[in-house]
Amino acid sequence: MENILTLSLFMIFYTYFGYPAILIVISVFKKLNKKHYQPTESSNKIPSVSFIITAYNEEQRIQEKIESSLCLEYPKEKLEIIVASDCSDDNTDEIVKSYQNKGIKLVRAPERKGKENAQKYAVDTSIGEILIFSDTATILKPDGILNIVKNFCDPSIGCVSSEDKFIETDGSVSGEGAYVKYEMFLRKLESRVNTLVGLSGSFFAARRIVCENWATDLQSDFNTLLNSIKHGLIGISDPKSIGYYKNISDEKKEFNRKTRTVLRGISVLMRNLSLLNPFRYKMFAWQLFSHKLCRWLVPFFLIAAFISNSLLIFSSVIFFLLLILQTVFYVLAYLYYKKETSVYANSLSAIFRLPFFFVTVNFSILCAWWKYFKGERATFWQPSKR
Fold it and tell me: Cα 98 vs. chain centroid, distance in angstroms?
């Protein structure tokens, strides 16, 4: 039991703190020995871009998305805008068709088979050297495409991820939560050290070569990053390329979204287990293991830690205190869930929210594993109402 408890606590600590700490150490040495990429005259050529917007029953938001896309600062003769409709049955397609005279193309999937299936139809008909994918709800600045495309001057880069920021209902940028800050920090470290392990699904770009053999049943953002690695290329995060989107107000829907996202990610990983081979993929294999697999195994480590600690409670004062700490942590999460923190000052509310968010995220991962082993696969999608 002591060994199980020690291993479980170590893996939890390693996943959230050990992995980033090692990346920081490596980044220091990388910075000292970094060889800057020297652009050539040919690398300054402006590539053609296909901007693919995926939509399903987005009649309330698609016009605003198209209007903002038409204002993007990129040479018009080099920019192709495609709306990939996943067999929408509302007024989405008609709205898109009304913009055909302004160069907006509609690609409609003949039947609803999911986001990636709709994207494949758009990929197959697109002509751009660089493919950029965006959700309807994601808001981009006018220079969003120009910024993200600049990264492809480096021939070693296969895909680029945006950074995520939340906006309030009044349009102001809200403060980032601890989780988003952590993820963005991790992406910066991974970009400096080697490569990203995942992309932001709401706004990312990729070379056409890594979008060949597009999988219609696998999460496109994660799978595109893995395809880049298979082609000997890397993925990076660009802090100048930002995707703005509103928070989901309904926490129950947010939980379902997290579960669906993890389920889709697990499906991709299980189809690409060969990438965990350190002899072939070296540092990336370690990154994939640490960032994805370990993260998705944390719920099992948490359960093992609590059970083993409970069985050891009377063997040592240390074990007794450790169990008390674990119990208090889960109680704080429960209190936040029951909204009992409203009697406390706002400054204390954040203390309750962090345990709640941690527990919620890991419970969603547990649910995703349960669905995966039951044979469920999240290929269909319903855009989140924000």
Answer: 32
